[in-house]
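Sequence only, no structure available. Ideas?
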Amino acid sequence: MTRSYAAFLFDVDGTLISSIASAERVWTAWALRHGVDVASFLPSIHGVRSVDTIARLGLPGIDAEAEAALIEIAEIADTEGIVEIPGAAAFVSSLPPDRWAIVTSASLELARRRLAAAGMPLPAVMITAEDVTRGKPDPQGYRLAAKRLGVDPADCLVFEDAPAGIGAGKAAGAEVVVITATHSHPVAADLRSVDDYRGLTARLDGGDRLVLLEAG
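Reply:
I predicted one. Tokens follow.
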């Protein structure tokens, strides 16, 4: 990549950290309680807000917001096995503080708990589930993050892993890099993908713009 960017925007789960084991334990228990087929349901939970995941099922008599609140309590309590995506902490720590942000479908408390469990630094700007009225794949979160950084979303590079987040980044007008460490779904031919951050470095281009470099 030789293009420069005003800022880098990151998803959290599956992109900076892996919380799959924790999330799937919680959601498996929830699905079993509500008679939802676990095998077909679990792939749908990644990258979107809990309330949207539950509402999409259309289960009779289910209050999506109340159930999402219970899911969050369980997820906050379960941080076992949460780890950084290899190289992620060093990579984001190398970035200027005013040139990166997080955009996650998790709540602020859950995002902070998971990032802390993985030993990840916190950015100055974090857009979480509470900050948006429409979750991914809607671009609202990425547009808001760019606005708070004082940049154009089309001048940003988004790091994502799940289809909903990839769609949100593209809809915001940003370029997207797909992190594949935790997922095996196909990546569109027009997108660059990397396993993790160990082969990536970022530098300033002589001004205040970021350039992403990939080893090899």
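The chain has two domains: 4-19+82-214, 20-77.
Hope that gets you unstuck.
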